[in-house]
Amino acid sequence: MENTYSIKWIVLDMDGTLLNPWDQISPRTKACLMSCQKQGIRLILASGRSYPRLMPYAKELAMDRYGGRLIEVNGMAVYDLEKEERRIIRRLEGGQIRELFDFCKGCQVEVQCYQDKAIYYWIPQWQVALKEAERKARGLPPDYPNLGGSWTWITDTRGGYPLQVQIENVSQVPDELNKINCCADPETNEGAYRKLKKRFGTEYEIARTCPRLIEISPKDVTKGNTLKMLMEEDGVKPSEVCAFGDGENDVEMFEAVGTAIAMGNAADYVKQHARFVTESNRDDGIAMALEKWIIH
């Protein structure tokens, strides 16, 4: 069906945006996005996740049938779902990894080192009791991962990262990584963020994707820069692109497009860079915005 709208691309952050608090695409949002694709609008998932953790949602939206794409790991790679082709932009390497790991470890936050299907993580001693208390309170089995998450002290991401290794020092980390995350309670993470920005602010991309997570990527590797590259390659104008997000790593993406929409659950800083603010990811914010400002 011919695209009768001025918008050609819809770009969607994942956690806190497309996904509700239960890591699901709501039926209303899915129906709305499927309708957009049938009208000729391309969907692009832009996330801190790598393709193994994005693929189930891309398949749920049948994005391979409609020329959909993935912007992975905050712009580190692009995946063309129709062609099944992946393009790597840039990764963190040896000396960078060792320098960042040791500094983050000194900030007493959990340090998470990501590859495509693996996570190597170090836990500060003060977090161990908190993780065990949560494991007991939630009645989780002994083999449940110790990895910290966006909202909890421990979370299970083995569906996308089947290899998860708790480590003691940087010598156990591979020489090439997609990104490094810092994970702690919001107050501790805020202190780590200030230290990281002061020490490495001109050398790496450092963003708070939620109060409990800081994500570190190579310099100039951002969702916004990778999206702009794709727009230039395809001859798509900013006025023809709509983007949804809720985190700091979505702000550059907002600046690249004509219609930037922040979720109701986004931080005030993110909302200030948006053209519109919709409802939260819990309340079908994407569907409401598309119905109000795009589809009609």
UniProtKB/TrEMBL annotation:
Q: Which organism is it from?
A: Candidatus Onthocola gallistercoris
Name of the protein: HAD family hydrolase
Give the Gene3D superfamilies listed for this entry: 3.30.1240.10, HAD superfamily/HAD-like (3.40.50.1000)
Q: Which CDD domains match?
A: HAD_Pase
Which UniProt key words apply to this protein? Hydrolase
Which GO molecular-function terms appear in the entry? magnesium ion binding; phosphatase activity
One GO term of the cellular component aspect?
Answer: cytosol
UniProt xrefs under InterPro entries: Cof, HAD-like_sf, HAD-SF_hydro_IIB, HAD_sf
